[in-house]
Amino acid sequence: MDYSLINAGIQITRSIVPIIIILGVLSNFLNIIILRRSNLKRYGCSLYFITMSISNIFYLSICVTYNLLLDGYQIDLVRYSSILCKLISYFLNFCPYISVCMLILASIDRYLSSSLSAQRRKLRNAILFDVYNNDIIGCTSKSNNIFIFGLLTIYNTKKLNRNRIVVFRYRRTERQLARMLIVQVLSHVILNLPFLIMFLMLLISITFPSNIIFYFLYLLFKILFYMAFITPFFLYILSAQLYRAELILLLKKTFRIYNRIAIRPMPGNRN
């Protein structure tokens, strides 16, 4: 019975993770294209989202592919190359770190942009030349920052909705970007928390009733963790009308170019 759980976990990994990789790379690539369009790229928040999408593409195409071979087919590529071992180890730590940092910076940008104080709004244009990280634990600072600035953004948005004068000045795009960020922060916490709890239990060696059940749950929660790297595109579509409009315009432009090429007569077919 227990070993059937392991086989079920492996089959789930083989079935779902390839779909996550393909959808993730395509959706993050579309994110980059859409967020670089003129209606969105002038906002600092969009730059952080673009950087996060680039990091997600590297993580999905390199790290998740490696984990698929390891967890689904028991093929460990790092055993055959020391260079590949260092490269995968680097991306396994670097890409999630960059994604979380970009989410923090986007949260700070949205908080400052939505503030009623003109002095705070000016801070969003500040350029930092020296950043010193003294986080001993290593994970609390990033999680707390996402949570704190996410709540502050929600507070500022509700405060703006009560002020008609400010709402008139506060552009519609700014509100939609704030909504995109809030939804993404919530999904990030929900999808990452189960796997991080399991990983923490693994690090501090908490005894579990069955190692096989633990491994099965570890595989399932790891898939949820992967989902955090593909959900931004779909969350943006659901939460922001401007993003949906830009996606539709992009698709229409693509179809027009395709149809123009398809109906173009061949050079030798003219009579």
Describe this structure as you would to a colleague.
- Helices cover 79% and strands 0% of the residues.
- The chain is an all-alpha fold and 271 residues long.
- It has a domain of 177 residues: Rhopdopsin 7-helix transmembrane proteins (Up-down Bundle).
- The longest helix is centred in the first third of the chain and has 34 residues.
- The radius of gyration is 22 Å and the shape is globular.
- About 3% of the residues have low confidence.
Write a short abstract of this structure.
It contains 11 helices and no strands. The protein has 271 residues and is mostly helical.
Question: Helices, strands, pairings?
Answer:
Layout: H1 2-35, H2 38-41, H3 44-73, H4 82-113, H5 118-123, H6 140-161, H7 164-169, H8 172-203, H9 211-227, H10 231-239, H11 241-262
GO cellular component, one term: plasma membrane
Domain G-protein coupled receptors family 1 profile: 27-271
InterPro entries: GPCR_Rhodpsn, GPCR_Rhodpsn_7TM
